[in-house]
Design goal:
- This protein is α+β, with helices and mostly antiparallel strands.
- It has 24 helices and 54 strands.
- Strands 19-14-13-22-23-34-33-30 form an eight-stranded mixed beta sheet, sandwiched between helices.
- A hairpin with a 5-residue loop joins strand 51 and strand 52.
- Helix 10 crosses helix 11 (424-446), helix 11 packs across helix 12 (466-477) and helix 22 packs parallel to helix 23.
């Protein structure tokens, strides 16, 4: 430690305290001596030759205790610790063997999850590995209203559990349908399991008592899987510390006693300490609104703070859905070790990392070029001012020579490929620009996208690499203040010492916010407060130290995004909710009821008041320059002074450019910035020269800015999508994510999109071009149009596209279009849900919006809209729902307009338009590269309905182009399996994008090298008024499999979306159901997953039963049903839905007669089937496109098709994949 000391006021402690962050690579220790002085220590987390545990060794080192000597517990007041032990076990799948006990009929529900595939364009689908080893089904079933459908059978449960106990499993997760609210069965099974001898039993009710079976079940499994490992680690540490008070940081940002530390609360243990440290140090420095910026070697964690800790209550961690309160931390794969490479046209940074071994090129282990190497090349990291810890003897400096050699070679390769004349230093600067943009976009996700203007915030920067990039990241966001604490290199450990003890409790409520609900809510809050307070008092916290926060999760009825609101009167809570909603989304919906989703209590045991004292040192304010070095900053070479932070005194000011060396980090002061040391030792960086926002970058294609604009365009589409998802009414958009948002050029050509549904990709452009053509010269700023007409830019009627033109400031010229397409729950027609199986003309499928003006110069034309929804032989059944979803789509468009204008203000219109074209040209080149290696092919594929889709694909290698010719395809059909040509375009675009094994932007450029021939009058180019509803969802899947068949890429997938609609006058519901994917030359198909032209989520079973009068009897995988082959096809599913009211059920599907094809000698998959089981025992078989009237008690059964196999089954050498499922 330097002669600078930070002293904290101590109220009652007399011994040592140790605040520890046990990270994946290093363990950081901050020790507070009995006199209040703080010292730091850093050591490797894993060094088994030298010590058993890094945290304990750190304590030994600082106390000066020998390896085998006992630790004097009497000298230590407390050890406060965060650990990545649980996180690493989750990432590496190294938890305990775990058994899942669940309701009979739901053994595969967590494996199926919400049925979506993680990578939209991967032929080889990879799903996260499940944490549980085995599943046992328990005879029991409770309905959504709490009535018992099937009584718990403990007699049959006992031998089932005993079998796995005898096999050696000791961890059990218990998750039953509706157990969050009606836990009796779960608790009884838990008692039985403990009686048998299971040592770890986690119930979903005790783990996460909130609705959503899948994410609550996953959370329960995580708890059972990780808690034993965590317990062993805690016991190991405690055994060496003796009778010392040991506390651990939880994911929610609060400490808890070691004996209460659970697996579900340990996932963000380390990062949460960083947030606490960032908040507390910022408050000491006088900043109350911060973005915490923790940049390490492999990733960067960012978080937003404005007076209260923000928590997420449902997150995805390492492929696992977690339903537990966690600090809202966004992690991006951009760190000092992120690899920099060139793909032939674009500079690319990450997400791959060089890790700790080999590490960056400069680490002397033969590693690749990384972001850290960029800083070495730019002179921002100087070997002579960096610890000499490299080479075989850990005594050599950073290797700047190899960095220069590698950048020289890379600059040469880039020049050869593009003609770009950047020097090696400028190449490094280009990569750094992209890394900075990636991190800035991560910060936008947790701030700007949620309605916060961060320009007045302070960037609190920590982590090993944070100080090197803080000024640049702040500039990218328009921020003008950066804070680096003296302990920035160990801030997560420092945060452990500043944290309070916290206990959180939640319980589902699910009732309308009104006066009559308050008594029950307050009773629930009292019970939760009592539980939470008792947990604190058991940890020695006095009543005077405890503060209890009483809150409720409120959301609009029919939506799925709750806001955490302080409990008060209903009027005050509504006011607070509306302020929060408006701040985040820009509007409120006063016509909707507010729902109290859950009660939440947080008991806070205040530990110590942080009071950092002013520095005591003898330095002068005039800092000594250690050396002057050459560096490249702000696009220029500079003679740059190097300083040592330890020589600063309060009031020291340093103008950029400058390099500041610190004990555990390097801080770069960029030109235009000034650094000042405050009396408390904080280094505050301030931009003192206004940043020139407009970039003078020219309109020629620059490989650096090409990647920047790729990310910018995509980010705008993603922000639109987030707005739509959070504000829509319908389950289809909000939960199933059946929507897409996109940006288009002034001609209506796709520039960038945030796709959830591939079928939307190529077809939205047609809608834009329709609006552009039919309103030429008549559009005004503030206008919004909507289209769903299949013969004028639409695909099928439920998919409604909302289009907003973006004008220049003068309101004269259209600069861009933005649009969103969402699947509405009902748009009229002859059946509820607007997916009739037997429509013959398009009017029977619902209401047509043919270039319909929705907003006229800012005025929402609601009366006109409602009249249109009603003026039809088959009007919309729930026009309020349509209006709400269209409003959400308008809001998404408004977000797009706002963000596009920001981009134009920053870069200039000519530059933005130039890169709009460059981005499309880049995608075109990527597809031409694929064409270079493809072979001609043709394929004909029959459908159940009697038609044939035929395609011939010819490649011209000379001009690197392709012809996709659908000649020979059946003529227009009398059924509704006709597909507008936009659907075939989408399928071609999707298939060629899948062939490009890289993350390229998907836009109009992909189709430029491809000529698509579709004969007029065939079923892929039908004429009005042909019915088309199945064309979009079913024919599109057939076209996709036909294209893959012609190219010989993989066997057929299930080839259908299995569209199920049910409803009556009160309820309408629509879902698509997963099946098996096709096998390929080097991979098996995957079971129970959505494929190709759809990727919609399935509504959680508990939400399905809560909102609709149905009972999901079972949903599982038909193991072993995929096509046989050297690689087997994925298996299909079986789904049973019992109706509790009279309804109509409709199926729209394919592959009930024609099986999905196998390839290269592989066997075909199995066909699907569907039927109704009547209450009288009769079985009513249904066809691929059919409907039935069902009575209460009838059961609809859906058996989905499976994927085809690849290669002869006799050549298979590995065991069948079903054995692992």
């Amino acid at each position: 430690m330097s002669k600078n000391k930070i002293v904290e006021s101590i109220t009652c402690d007399t011994g040592w305290q140790f605040w520890i962050d046990r990270g994946g690579t290093f363990t950081d220790v901050v020790a507070k001596k009995p006199n209040g002085e703080l010292i730091t220590h850093k050591l490797l987390s894993e060094n088994p030759e030298a010590y058993r545990d890094a945290a304990v060794q750190g304590i030994r080192d600082l106390l000066g205790i020998a390896k085998d000597a006992p630790i004097p517990a009497g000298q230590i007041d407390a050890v406060k610790m965060g650990t990545t032990v649980a996180t690493n076990a989750l990432l590496e799948r190294k938890g305990d063997r775990t058994l899942l006990a669940t309701t009979e009929g739901f053994r595969d529900q967590l494996r199926i999850g919400y049925q979506a595939r993680p990578d939209l364009f991967a032929n080889k689908i990879v799903l996260p590995e499940m944490l549980y080893e085995s599943v046992v089904e328990i005879e029991e079933r409770v309905r959504a209203d709490g009535s018992v459908e099937t009584s718990l059978n403990l007699e049959t449960a006992r031998p089932r559990l005993q079998k796995f106990y005898d096999d050696g499993i000791r961890a059990l997760a218990v998750a039953f349908m509706h157990g969050y609210r009606f836990p009796k069965h779960e608790l009884e099974v838990a008692d039985l399991a403990r009686e048998i001898g299971f040592t770890q039993v986690s119930t979903s009710y005790e783990t996460s008592p909130l609705m959503k079976f899948v994410s609550r079940g996953d959370t329960t499994v995580v708890d059972a899987y990780l808690s034993p490992l965590l317990r062993r680690y805690v016991d190991q540490v405690a055994s060496e510390l003796g009778n010392t008070r040991l506390m651990f940081m939880q994911s929610n940002g609060g400490l808890t006693d070691a004996q209460l530390f659970q697996g579900k609360d340990a996932i963000l243990s380390g990062p949460a300490g960083g947030i606490v440290g960032a908040v507390e140090t910022a408050e000491q420095a006088g900043f109350d609104r911060i973005i915490s910026f923790d940049m390490g070697g492999t990733s960067t964690d960012v978080a937003h703070y404005e007076g209260v800790y923000e928590r997420a209550f449902e997150t995805l961690v390492a492929g696992v859905r977690m339903r537990a309160p966690m600090m809202m931390i966004h992690t991006v794969a951009a760190g000092g070790g992120s690899i920099c490479f060139f793909d032939g046209s674009r500079y690319r940074v990450g997400p791959e990392s060089a890790g700790a071994n080999p590490g960056p090129a400069c680490y002397r282990r033969g590693g690749p070029l990384t972001v850290t190497d960029c800083n070495v090349m730019l002179g921002k990291l100087q070997p002579e001012f960096f610890p000499n810890v490299f080479g075989p003897n850990q005594d050599a400096p950073l290797d700047a020579d190899v960095v220069r050699e590698k950048f020289d070679a890379l600059a040469h390769d880039i020049h050869e490929a593009t003609g770009d004349h950047r020097s090696p230093v400028e190449v490094a600067d280009g990569y750094l620009k992209i890394a900075v943009e990636n991190m800035a976009n991560a910060i936008k996700k947790i701030s700007v996208q949620r309605g916060y203007d961060v320009t007045g915030y302070t960037l609190n920067c920590f982590g090993g690499a944070g100080g090197q990039h803080a000024c640049l990241v702040a500039d990218a966001l328009g921020m003008t203040k950066v804070l680096t604490h003296p302990f920035a290199g160990v801030l997560s450990a420092y945060g452990m010492g500043l944290a309070d003890i916290r206990a959180l409790r939640e319980r589902a409520v699910e009732t309308t916010l009104e006066d009559g609900a308050m008594a029950a809510l307050n009773t629930t809050l009292d019970e939760l407060a009592c539980e939470a307070t008792k947990e604190l008092t058991r940890q020695g916290i006095t009543d005077a130290q405890i503060e209890v926060l009483r809150r409720a999760h409120l959301r609009y009825e029919g939506t799925d995004t709750p806001h955490l609101i302080d409990v008060a009167s209903p009027e005050e809570m509504q006011k607070s909710f509306e302020a929060s909603h408006h701040q985040r989304y820009g509007f409120i919906m006063p016509e909707k009821s507010l729902i109290i989703e859950a009660a939440a209590v947080e008991a806070v045991g205040v530990m110590t008041e942080t009071d950092e004292k002013e520095m005591k040192n003898t330095n002068t304010a005039e800092a000594e320059v250690l050396a002057t070095v050459s560096s490249f900053m702000a696009s220029n070479e500079h003679n740059t002074p190097v300083y040592d932070r330890d020589t600063f005194a309060p009031g020291t000011r340093i103008m950029g450019p400058a390099v500041i060396r610190e004990k555990t980090a390097t801080t770069i002061v960029e030109p235009g910035w000034e650094a000042e040391l405050t009396p408390k030792g904080h280094l505050v960086l301030t931009r003192v020269v206004a940043l020139e926002r407009e970039f003078a970058i020219g309109t020629e294609c620059d490989p650096v800015m090409l990647e920047v604009f790729n990310n910018l365009f995509m980010s705008i589409a993603e922000q639109m999508g987030l707005t739509l998802e959070n504000t829509a009414f319908s389950v289809n958009i909000k939960e199933r994510l059946d929507f897409s948002c996109a940006i288009f050029d002034p001609e209506g050509m796709l520039v960038a999109n945030a796709p959830h549904i591939p079928i939307h990709l190529g077809s939205m452009s047609e809608s834009i071009r329709t609006v552009r053509r039919e309103n030429a010269g008549k559009m005004n700023p503030g206008d919004v149009f909507t289209v769903n007409a299949p013969y004028n830019g639409g695909t099928h009627l439920p998919d409604v596209t909302v289009i907003t033109p973006i004008f220049d400031d003068a309101g004269q010229d259209i600069l861009f279009f933005v649009a969103s397409r969402g699947h509405h729950a009902d748009i009229g027609g002859i059946t509820p849900g607007s997916m009739p199986p037997n429509s013959k003309v398009v009017e029977e499928e619902g209401i047509l919006f043919d270039n319909f003006m929705l907003v006229d110069r800012g005025e929402f034309l609601e009366d006109k809209l409602r009249a249109h929804l009603a003026d039809h032989p088959y009007p919309a059944r729930n026009p309020d729902h349509n209006v709400a979803d269209l409003k959400a789509q308008i809001a998404a468009g408004a977000k797009g307009v706002q963000e596009v204008h920001k981009m134009i203000d920053q870069f200039g219109l000519d530059v933005v338009h130039a890169y709009m074209r460059h981005v499309q040209d880049n995608a075109e080149e990527q597809v031409r590269r694929v064409i270079d290696v493809m072979q001609d092919g043709e394929f004909a594929y029959p459908t159940d309905e009697g038609a044939v889709i035929k395609v011939k694909i010819s490649f011209n290698k000379e001009n690197r182009s392709a012809i996709v010719d659908f000649s020979g395809t059946s003529d227009q059909r009398p059924s509704n399996y006709n597909a507008p040509s936009a659907v075939a375009r989408s399928a071609v675009l999707y298939v060629f994008r899948c062939l490009v094994d890289d993350k390229i932007p998907l836009n109009e450029g992909c189709l430029k090298p491809i000529e698509i021939i579709i004969p007029a009058g065939c079923m892929l180019a039908p004429k009005y008024p042909a019915a088309v509803v199945a064309g979009n969802v079913e024919t599109s899947q057939v076209v996709t499999d036909t294209l893959f068949g012609a190219l010989g890429v993989q066997a057929a997938s299930q080839g259908t979306m299995n569209n199920v609609t049910f409803g009556n006058d009160s309820h309408q519901y629509y879902e698509t159901v997963c099946g098996g994917s096709g096998a390929g030359p080097d991979f098996d198909g995957i079971s129970a997953v959505h494929t190709h032209m759809t990727n919609t989520r399935l509504t959680d079973p508990e939400i399905l039963e809560w909102r609709y009068p149905v009972l999901l009897e079972s949903f599982g995988i038909r193991h072993g049903s995929g096509g046989a082959g050297r690689h087997t096809g994925g298996s299909g599913t079986l789904r049973r839905i019992r109706f509790l009211e009279d309804m109509e059920v409709i199926i729209l599907s394919n592959h009930r007669i024609v099986p999905p094809y196998g390839m290269a000698g592989g066997a075909p998959g199995e066909c699907g089937r569907n039927w109704v089981e009547r209450t009288n025992g009769n079985r009513d078989e249904m066809t691929a496109m059919d409907k039935r009237t069902v009575a209460a008690g009838d059961v609809f059964v859906l058996q989905t098709p499976t994927g085809g196999g690849y290669g002869p089954a006799t050549e298979r050498v590995e065991p069948l994949p079903e054995a692992a499922e």
